Amino acid sequence: MKLYSVVLVTLHTPREKIWGLLLDLTPAGVTVCGVDLSAFEDWLSQVGTDEEMGLSTLFYPLHRVERLAMDEPMGKLPSLHDRFQQKTTKQLIDYLENFGFK
Fold this sequence. Notes:
By secondary structure, the protein is an alpha+beta fold. It is about 20% helix and about 35% strand.
């Protein structure tokens, strides 16, 4: 998996799913700039409005990571990143540059 890929991270204890940009992957854990999957729709609906929330950069220790998957389309279903691009016309990494991410 390449750095700066858009990924889905599944965590356990507690169970969480995170969508975002992979910033680092080490034996210690994974760092992602993203949003909890349960809040994705709300976040996406606020993108480009005055109520827009940013994304959080968080480190998750590897012992909590159950699965790390690329955000890819499944058959005719678009990926979450595809949906993001349709709304913003930007790649996630380009969008994050507006918030000081480099």
